[in-house]
Design brief:
By secondary structure, the protein is α/β, with parallel strands linked by helices. It is about 25% helix and about 25% strand.
Length: about 200
């Protein structure tokens, strides 16, 4: 049985839109793309690589897939371990209609997302890892399919842009299983989804 894990770059105010470049995702007139780049470091790159190398297969939304497919197949240096990992991995692509998938080892999950992902989780071992893919992740979270979240939080408030969790996301508590403080104020946190949140009161009897 696989676990479904999610990895995201995220701002202090929860924005995940266009972390890697100004033209990555301009939906809604978003003009702050590339906000991760000034804070990136060798230590962060190593931590991201360790996380992605845990994946047995990848699950990507169509937009993230297209961004990756425009770049990684062009990186052919065998010494680039991230390119080797991403190019060699099976990539399951979520899209409402069947897309043309030219990147090697890419497969459409089909029209029934929930059934397809449940089947993928049941058929193997290790991690089925969703990278970025905010719209897809929101759907998976609403379906109760996400087992873990790995978040790299950057010390920036963007004030606008698409946020990781929808306003109607189901309430969930999280168990912290891994934590590290990295260079330039970036934090690494890995959470396990732990069920419904509990509540209490500070009121005195």
């Amino acid at each position: 049985m696989r676990t479904l894990t999610v990895t995201q770059f995220i701002s202090l105010d929860g924005v995940v839109q266009a972390p890697g470049g100004p033209d990555e995702d301009t939906r809604g007139g978003f003009e702050l793309g590339g906000w991760v780049v000034p804070h990136f470091s060798e230590a962060l790159g190593a931590r991201v690589g360790e996380t992605h190398f845990r994946a047995s297969e990848l699950l990507l939304g169509r937009r993230t897939y297209d961004i990756f497919a425009a770049h990684w197949p062009r990186v052919t240096d065998p010494a680039d371990t991230m390119a080797t990992k991403l190019n060699g991995s099976v990539k399951h692509v979520a899209s409402h209609t069947e897309p043309a998938l030219a990147w090697a080892h890419s497969r459409w999950v089909g029209a029934d997302l929930e059934s397809a992902v449940r089947a993928l989780l049941a058929e193997g071992e290790g991690e089925l890892q969703a990278i970025g893919s905010r719209d897809l992740v929101q759907s998976l979270f609403a379906l109760g399919l996400v087992d873990e979240l790995t978040l790299w939080t950057f010390p920036v408030v963007l004030g606008k842009g698409n946020r990781l969790f929808a306003a109607d996301a189901p309430p969930r508590s999280m168990e912290l299983v891994e934590s590290a403080d990295l260079d330039h104020g970036v934090t690494h946190r890995r959470y396990r989804v732990a069920g419904a949140p509990t509540a209490g009161s500070f009121a005195l009897d």
